[in-house]
Amino acid sequence: MSTEKRNALGRGLSALLNDSENVQQNKSHVSNAPEVNNPGSVNEIKLAEIETNPFQPRTDFDQQALAELADSIKLQGLIQPITVRRMSAHSYQLISGERRFRASKLAGLTQVPAYIRTANDQQMLEMALIENIQRENLNAIEVALSFQRMIEECNLKQEELGDRVSKNRSTVTNYLRLLRLPPAVQASVRDGQISMGHAKALLTLEDPTQQIFYHQHIIKQGLSVRMTEDLVRNAQRPPVKKDDKKPEPVSFQVQKIQDDLASKFSTRVKLKVSSQGKGTIEIPFLSQEDLGRILEIMDW
């Protein structure tokens, strides 16, 4: 890909839509179809002639928000035009504005104002991704999937991808790392049960089983990102060695009790039992709130 093309894409959606060197000219033209010679002109297009964008990275649409937008469109009309590309004389494909497109259908409109562009499939994908990412309409997992798709389908390096979406490489990397989490954790990020900050803390745990265990604890206890970071840090802390003595082997029965208690209290529990049957139980806590949680479980 030439440097000139890369720079144009890096300027954002407006540069993509107006850069005549980066679009594929549509040779077929019918006299009664809307003109596309002026990239700033707005045309009225029938909704029935528009198909949705197969490259749309956004998968979740808030139905209540769509209904509210539809009510606004009924009163005011569609103020902001959508953007489409022409497929044939009376067939168009959505580039950006699917939320407005859906709400216009709900509002009962038969036609909408639109900018008409020409673009190939790679530009369609980049336009849809950039339009959504710049508007912050995607959740973190959708952004991560969109980044991954651009890397794979557009053959981009992470640094080049950062240029496209106006984000530094570390930000792109952090999003892509979310896709290493177990599916259940990714779903919680997608659905807003935990934040990207929670997910980043869980990523410091290498064991997927631990990630799932602490993920459930975060949701159950409503932990903040800071509390989650402390919890994960404590889980990774190696046991303190004293006098270089090897720890005494733990019997299966003791290990089973430790595991059951750890599951009950959602934290590490250490059980020490002497040969005489005496011993102690250690239950660490991270804060006063965490202590209160443990005491509540103990019905203190």
From TrEMBL:
Region entry Disordered, spans: 19-40
Pfam entry (one): ParB_C
GO BP: chromosome segregation; positive regulation of sporulation resulting in formation of a cellular spore
Residue spans crossing the bilayer: none
Superkingdom assignment: Bacteria
Keyword match Transmembrane: no
ParB-like N-terminal domain: residues covered: 43-133
Alphabetized UniProt keyword annotations: Chromosome partition, DNA-binding
GO molecular function: DNA binding
UniProt xrefs under InterPro entries: Chromosome_partition/occlusion, HTH_ParB/Spo0J, ParB/RepB/Spo0J, ParB/Sulfiredoxin_sf, ParB_dimer_C, ParB_N
GO cellular component terms listed in the entry, alphabetical order: chromosome
CDD domains, A to Z: SPO0J_N (cd16393)
Protein name, per record: ParB family chromosome partitioning protein
Homology family: Belongs to the ParB family.
